[in-house]
Fold this sequence. Notes:
Blueprint: H1 4-7, H2 15-21, H3 24-36, H4 42-58, E1 63-67, E2 79-81, E3 83-85, E4 91-93, H5 97-101, E5 102-103, H6 115-118, E6 123-127, E7 134-136, E8 139-148, H7 157-177, E9 186-200, H8 201-205, H9 208-213, H10 238-253, E10 258-263, E11 269-274, E12 277-278, H11 279-299, E13 302-305, E14 319-327, H12 340-359, H13 361-367, H14 371-374, E15 389-390, H15 393-404, E16 407-409, E17 413-415, E18 439-441, E19 446-448, H16 457-481, H17 485-500, H18 512-521, H19 530-533, H20 540-548, H21 554-608, H22 615-644, H23 651-679, H24 690-694
Parallel strand pairs: 1-8, 15-18
Antiparallel strand pairs: 1-2, 3-4, 5-6, 6-8, 7-8, 9-11, 9-12, 9-13, 9-14, 10-11, 14-19, 16-17, 18-19
Helix pairs in contact: 3-4, 7-16, 10-11, 12-16, 12-17, 13-16, 15-17, 16-17, 21-22, 21-23, 22-23
Bound molecules: adenosine-5'-diphosphate (ADP) and magnesium ion.
Amino acid sequence: MEKVSDYFGCMVFDDRVMKATLSAKVYQSLKRTMDEGVRLDPGVADAVAAAMKDWAVAHGATHYTHWFQPLTGVTAEKHDSFISPSPDGGVIMEFSGKELIKGEPDASSFPSGGLRATFEARGYTAWDPTSYAFIKGKTLCIPTAFCSYGGEALDKKTPLLRSMEALNKQALRILRLFGNDSVKCVRTSVGPEQEYFLITKEMYDQRPDLRFTGRTLFGARSPKGQEMDDHYFGVIKPRVAAYMEELNHELWKLGILAKTEHNEVAPAQHELAPIYTTTNIATDHNQLTMEIMQKVAAKHGLVCLLHEKPFAGVNGSGKHNNWSISTDSGVNLLSPGETPYENAQFLLFLCAVIKAVDDYQDLLRISVATAGNDHRLGANEAPPAVVSIFLGDELNAVLEALETGAPYSGTEKTQMKLGVSVLPRFNRDTTDRNRTSPFAFTGNKFEFRMLGSSNSIACANIMLNSAVAESLKIYADRLEKAEDFETALHDMICKTIKDHKHIIFNGNGYDDTWIKEATENRGLLNYRTTPDCMPHLLDKKNVDMLTSHKVFSETELKSRCDIMLENYCKAVLIEANTMIDMARTQIAPAIEEYTLKLAQTAAAKKALDVSLGCGYESGLVKKLSGLTDRIAVKVTELEDAVTALHTAEDIIEESYAIRDTLLPKMGELRLACDEAETMTAKDYWPFPTYGDLLFGVR
Ligand code: ADP
Ligand code: MG
């Protein structure tokens, strides 16, 4: 057996390879670019490119690609081979610094929200030296950012890097105020827990809804669902275990720290969590993980479903974004410290997050908004669409004591005073494991739980980093001018608690009374759907904040709002068309066939003996005929709703029509079809049922 430590990261041009293949001078220079964001020397790029190419070719690569993350949500790549003709008729393998640094994919078909039309038809990709290059198949993949020639970002990576830079800048200002002059940079780290479903390829192929939309659009409940909770952390079936083993192997080769895996709550649902790493790398790794999950599944005769809600009535899949802020020297700024001074600093960063989440609830909601996630949020298995923060009783008590000046009645009765008191340690064991909060403090990090399983984690982290950068900026502006630092700090923390405590909620987020309390008494936002929230991306306060930190330009925001709404509309429209097709060409004919069979049975019985009762058959024939009629009506209504979309004036209006008309019509059609499924003999039903799908992997 191969040892993991022998092959871990063998397909990555990582620090070990760089040290071994680059001259000391080139290595140092590249390191400075990676660690401190210093601009890359062009001479260095040539040397790095040559070393990268030699290493890649030695590992079997023939091509290279600039690997980027356009606004489609998946990654994109265009392969070029290394070959270059040599005068003797042969070829040599070449790769220059120029080719490493910049690529020009013909990218006119990627969504740009009109950006390229007004600037330049083509975009370019630019190397992100902070994320390692790697080999996939026979291709050297170079992580890149994707921009228009006007400099507008056309991807998710560019604003993510900008948001990390914004947070770095503001956090350094704060650290300097605390007398910390040695820290060079501050970064956020993320560990995303990825949920997914595995079903058999054979069944998947028989369901057009899964193939075209990633989720089932029809399907009566299976007699058994997740009610026994017997799947959660249950024994992993051999076929799934074999899948996980190969998946780990592939991920480890790519230097992805896949760590934890277990069965999730719903049958056929599983989770994979890597060890956390710097946010932009975690983002690249998560995109790769999703891609490799699907590839490995195919090898095992399985399909990996990453949709947020593949099955109605059982839990959907999310992606928990575990997020923390730390310094280049490895100090986690969201971890309570050993000394009162460190704790004051911790409380300041904690408050910055609380303020950020409250001030930009809408941006956090927007960052996870997709047609798929709309089915999951608030569906009694996932956090509601209302953003709130869970701190746990202990930390909550600390904040309350600070705000009121009352003695803190924790382990010791002491007066809480910043810079004087030692905070109790909040480790994992003391923070309650509240699972229902959209945004939970878990000892030394926050867990943002609203992300959908198929979302790129880039969007959520862009908003999180930017919003926290804004809080820190406001704090730094004030503290830099303060005459007495400690008093100013104390007052500011107390003010934050007072102003923003309405966002803190330590109870059960799945409870309906919470939604009432949150919206009616606390005035928190409740954007249930993508069309509800997305237009608020362009609210003045959001545009002002994001542009002031140079994370987005106003044009970029407008284009992104358009693209996200377009993606939403397209996704639902494909679902509606798939439903119409399935209902008309598969479901209705199947019911008709079974109805005929019943009618024939009744007739045969009668012919045998007129006194024979046919109550069962005729009753069922009546019910099923009624249902086929209803299905026919509902299909027509749905079709009309699709046609009516053409009259929408703009994308916002179209998204409203989808939310208010199309989705309800889809629900009505499904209801009729699912009812018919429960009355139709299984042999006649045209595709695998929920029971087959959810319990089919053995
Ligand atoms: P749970 O399921 O209890 O929430 P897991 O162990 O499944 O916890 O996942 C926790 C995730 O949080 C892992 O990806 C882990 O690497 C990550 N994590 C742990 N510490 C930090 C940290 N300081 N910053 C960011 N992520 C972290
Ligand atoms: Mg978790």
